[in-house]
Design brief:
heterodimer, A: alpha/beta, Rossmann fold, disordered C terminus, B: 3 domains, 11-stranded mixed β-sheet, 6-stranded mixed β-barrel, cell membrane (chain B), membrane (chain B)
Chain lengths: 239, 808
Amino acid sequence: MSEIKIQMKNISKVFETEEMETHALKDVNLTIKAGDYVSISGPSGCGKSTLLGLLGLLDMPSGGEYFVEGVNVSSLSLNEAAEVRNSKIGFVFQSFNLIDEISVFDNIALPLRYRKDKLNTQEIEQRVNKCLELVSMTHRSKHKPNQLSGGQQQRIAIARALVNEPAILLVDEATGNLDSNTGDQIMDVLDELNQKGTTICMVTHESRYADRATTQLKLLDGAILTTPELTSCSALQYV
Amino acid sequence: MKHSSYQLKQAWAGLSVRKGFLVTVVSTLGITLGALLCILTLAYVVIVKPLPYSNQNNLYQLNANLFNDKKEMMAASFTYPSLIHLYENQSVFQQSALVHYGEGVISSLPTQPRVKSTFVTPDWFKLVDSKIEMGRLFEESENKETFNPVAILTYSTWKNTFGADSNILDKTILISGTNFRVVGVLSQSFIEPELNGVGIKTDIFLPWDYNPTNEQVRNSWGQIDQNRRFVGMLDTDLSNNQIEQSLTPLVSDKWQENVAGVEFFSGWYIEMELLPFKKAILGDSQNSVLLLLAGMIGLVLIACANITNLFMSRTAEQHRQLAIQAAVGANKSHLFYTLLAQSGLLVFLSIIVALFVANAGFWVLQHYLEQRMPRVDELAINAVTLGAALLIALLLGLFFARLSTSLVNYRALNSVLQSSGKGTGIQVSQNVRKLLVVSQVAIVTVLIFVNLGLARDSLKIINTPMGFETENITSLTVSFGASGEFSEEEIAAMLAELKSKFKDLPQVDSVSQSLAPFGFLGMYAQTIQATQERMVVETRPVDNAYFSMLNQPLIEGDFFTQSDVQDRNLLLIVNDVYADKIAPQGSALGSKIEMGNSEYTISGVVKGIQMPAAADIPMRAYPVSRVTRTWFMLKLKPQQRLSREQVVSVLEEVNGRIDLMELGSLDNQKVQLLFTQYTTAITSVVLAVLTFFMASIGLFGVVNYTTQMRRFELGTRLAIGAKRADLIGLIVKDNAGAVGIGVIVSVLILLGLSIGFSESLSSYITLQLIPLFVSTLMLIGIIVLYACYWPLRPIINAPPIYSLRNSE
């Protein structure tokens, strides 16, 4: 049986303002195992990005329990959460989120600089180059992100997400800012990574990309829909 | 015009909904520009503005500089006969006058007010363009040796002391036993040249003949009095040097001729010095004004840097609105005028506030620095102030408008609308941000360092032990009617009775018939008999109770006894500095000192005392005081006070013709002597604190802006695992370079100042400044750390999703 990478139990997220409460997620249960390729899709405002934010420990749930590789991370301090993000999670953003002032190499190396167990320069170089190779961007390592095309920038973002060898790669609308051709190329990269063993959880609103995932989840009004086709998905447990 | 009015209305509408921005800019700029306008006006009055006399360039005070045989200058004043000789025999000055500054009591008024009386010859009023409110000025019939007792009141004396009595003319007032008939009141617009010291103003002008110089001094060629002046107007093609050379023999030869029989003055001579009125009145105050001006400019620069930052944020905020204007056809110059309307309105409002602040500053200067800064009573909003205000307003308005315009990328405005308003599109360049940090750090380091240095020096002087006690000691001086009204025996008897009555007062613990240590010291020519060395020594006659009352320590010998005072024994107590001069190897006790044709024996040595703000302890000698001295020191019992009325009532019990000239505690006198140091300490600390806070706000603003601009990047870093400490370190590191450059620039500025003002600053530049500079850097470090950390708090203390989401 495959190792469980991610497990959410009854996770909810409520956004409160002075006037109202908005239930963005309601009792979400989710399990992702090693090697899974999960897509989350749904209409705008259904809670996709909120769910991905919680999965990536970018935000904290209002209720429920969340485990990463068996460790309960539901109520970590900000610094502890940062450490988990750094070591266990790779995040790919829709708008790439690269830092324009530093080179491609340094962008990819950035997560390594925040590691608890520091690496030496040689190790950093090896890891960054390996990731650059994975996304076929070795020749652009000295460039600045704003000298690259959107697709190239997203490849770099993927490389940065992988550099710490995370337990899971979380991808938020990775093709949202790209034309269809470039988007396809990025999806090819993700497919290839999954084939090589990387666990991926991806948010997308494009069904043709969602279909590439081995497991497809649909969200509506903050809850995962129970559909017949989903039950066949070994990676998913839902209530 | 119509369009301008529309733009101003639009600008006001925009600003009125951003009250925080409006109030911050107007108050910061208003207060700092107000302070600048105040000091700028002061600088104009002190440095540029002509004196209010039509012949101001030709008016001079003539000094007689007395040199000893070693060519050391011993005094810069006339002996009485020298002054009269010069007045009667000189032919260089077209017009000249004699002036004697004195004090008296108007005994004919029930309150017996103490007044500053100035004794002048008639031409004095012509020299300084005196105008009258009523009556007349002195005439030839009131010239020297006419003994015509008339008086002219100044406007403020007429108003405050005589209640603006419209029938004051021909009334008589009794001063020092003489009835003077009032013949005139000076105009309110008359400004007296303050030749006797800053802020010292005459209350009543009296004829020269009545100056309170006694007969002995009037005929003495060896006694110098600093209260006398010779002033005149030149109308000649000769240079000042030529005039000085022509006058020197007139005075010096006559003086040498008259002191030829006095061995002490052998080899001494006089050199005349022409001092322009402006220099005599202003002294070295121009440097103080320039330093104040530099400090104020520094503060205004900090304020402008802060406001620049606010304008950048405001422009970023307005970007979408500007984009809409561009979309409907506004070109670049339209946008410039839109932004100029806003900055112009803000600067205009700030200038209005600034003029009020400047006016308040004038009031403060006139009330608190009247005795320290010349011509402050001439401060008022004038054409220079208004001109400077308008110029500053114009420059700042244009600068802020130009700055805001430069931040707007006109070509990229469309993309703002196309991206549905996401992102501001405005990024202030890193260089501009760095420049702001560098300038703030450089200015604040210099200002805080200089202010802390000034405060430290002032506090050091204030806290320097004087070597004697002042607590509960009150000094008073009395006078006995007109000169010659009482015989010496009568005065001695009345003083003895007074002393006894003072002792009997329940508040009084002990009495000394001596002048308080802060009072004027005589400079006496003395010769050490053993070595025949001649010198001029500060000399203060004291009685048997003086030293014990002040708790001034006796090193060897004895204090005077009651019988020493009664018998007028020729004994001398000297301080340790003088004793070392008299007998460098052994004891000075028993040594003989010749003074005024008498031989004194040293009977005691006391520890030297240091006067407040004095640089060192000079040689001092204390002979036995005569019983006719009209000075007292009263040691009061703890918690006791003695009012002027109580003292006057004691004086009246003895004799109604005794006037109370002066009454005050030694503690107050000490504070007055240290007024400059207290003012400097308070002002510099206030300026340092103000600078610190303004810099904190400014640096916070710049770093906060930078941090907000980097919110998305910081969120990304958090998302990939950066911890709080990582981000704090990142922001500190990113600003450290600019801070370092700022510190280097400040060091260069300080070095430039120390080289440029090396003469006046030489005594301040010591190794002790290093810890002070380190302390300043630590303060700057605290500001920078605060400025780096505080804006980061909302980012690092919340889950990263907030930074990422809010930035999109």
